[in-house]
Amino acid sequence: MTDIFEKFNSLNIMIIGDVMMDSYIWGKVERVSPEAPVPVVKVSNKENRLGGAANVALNVQSLGGKPFICAVIGDNQEGEEFLLLLRNQKLSEQGILKIKNRSTTVKTRIIAHNQQIVRVDEETDENISEAETELMIEMIKNNLSEQKIDAIIFEDYDKGLITEKLIHETVKLANQKGIITVVDPKKRNFLFYKGVHLFKPNLKELEDGLKIAIDPSKAVQVENAISKLKTQLGARAVMLTLSEKGVYISSEQGQRHIPAHKRDIADVSGAGDTVIATATLCLAAGLNEFKASEIANLAGGLVCEHVGVVPVDKARLLEESRKL
After folding, report:
1. Distance of CA 84 to the CA centre of its chain
2. Are 274 and 300 in contact (CB under 8 A)?
């Protein structure tokens, strides 16, 4: 297992997806507002963190891989703050496209006594224009020709960067070059990811994408839904995340349910980002889908022990992986 984790250090991972800034306001609640029946939070600290596809990049980096982000931001103050966070983390800005009159996604969480009081979202979900899509595809093509990329992650939050054309062109090029493609999907583009290596929906995304209801306690329903999805997408493997019930993996080698490990859950924010980053590095390092899913399942549980969005700790993940 140590050899696999050491191999992460030589892997280059391209992340194409919707980036965002996670803004935190920490404080204490000592009274209720006289203006409305809401708590008054006395602020003690503020912090901005990289979120969305950028958090996937942080997890890749934390595990030793080299991430390369392809994304769009607004040409505004929030966009500049996002770029500053990238620089502070020593992440490349080369694949970031600034767009005038477009929002930079910011999710502001107000937290008191380790509990989220409210979340405020500033964002747009409009698709980027055809011209901007062409610019992004060209950027992706250039980077795939200029450097060794071991895997591509599509981190889709339905915020408008990822379009059907961008998916089609990127997957076609990746398959030509033998590059692993992994998808963390959302509803809008759900059935456009044809021919990818690993597709990782959660239960709600699977239900929304296929327009069916699934009882996760009934294995037949889960298996039938995944079989239907694999047929429609032509995906080699599907990893369905089931929150506290673990993950269900279906590949060319068969199917398996991997239970979740018991944890003291503090916050589930960002767990999906950790799972997709870990699974991708494991696949790129040569592990099969079952082993990759087991380790990714562990990683997702570990980050849920922390409040807020945080990347996984490589040393702790290695220690727990050895126990499997």
Report:
1. 21
2. yes
146-150, 181-185, 288-292, 303-307: least confidently modelled range = 303-307
Torsion over CA: 174, 312, 93, 188 (sign): positive
Domains of the chain: 2-323 (3.40.1190.20)
Q: Is the pLDDT of residue 264 over 70?
A: no
Gap between the Cα atoms of 198 and 152, Å rounded? 11
> Among positive and negative, which fits the CA dihedral 201, 281, 195, 217?
negative
Among 22, 184, 267, 273, the one annotated catalytic: 273
Tokens at residue 90, please?
């020593």
CA 320 to chain centre: 22
Q: What is the mean pLDDT of residues 87-92?
A: 96
Q: Is 121 exposed, middle or buried (0-12, 13-18, 19+ CB in 10 A)?
A: exposed
Which residues lie closer than 8 Å to 38 by C-beta, 6 or more apart? 32
SS3 per residue for 170-190: HHHHHHHHCCEEEEECCCCCH
- Has 273 been annotated as catalytic? yes
